[in-house]
Amino acid sequence: MRLGSIQWFRIACLATLALVIAPPSNPADRAPAKVFGGAQIQEIYRIRLDRDDGILESLTNIIQERGIQDGAVLTGIGSVQECTYHRIVSLGPTAKDEFIHVQGPMELVSLDGIIANGEPHLHLTLANAKGAFGGHIEKGCRVLYRVELTVAKFSGPALARKTNVDGTPLLQPK
Hints:
Layout (H helix, E strand, L loop, with lengths): L4 H17 L5 H4 L9 E11 L4 H11 L4 E19 L8 E20 L2 E10 L2 E7 L4 E14 L3 E5 L5 E5 L1
Antiparallel strand pairs: 1-6, 2-3, 2-5, 2-6, 3-4, 4-5, 7-8
């Protein structure tokens, strides 16, 4: 049986109605993005870390010393001799992490993230002869020759991470 244009129109209307009435199967699909405005860059810090410095340890000290409650690590490049990071290994509602420690000469291709309530949430990309890899930086990443960073300190409405029912820390107003 061949369908005419009126019948195709009815099918299209019913399909559209089903999409409007039925919520998405994943609740995250229907939640709009959360946008937190009002912040301005108060100050920019350009930082050099030298051989054997701990990247996260040094950044944490700088954040505390400079009183950076809200900000961002805008750039980070250089080389590392060892690094610990973690990455997500599940699709479930609760994150499952795999912690990895690597050693040897590696390029720090990028390091960036957000500082909220004085706590950094930073991701990195490393590369060696086998390829590129990365995730969430942990303590224990040591500089090989140098690492250069740019950190912005924000002024304006403060943000913090608060844990949701699944245990995920979510960025929101303080």
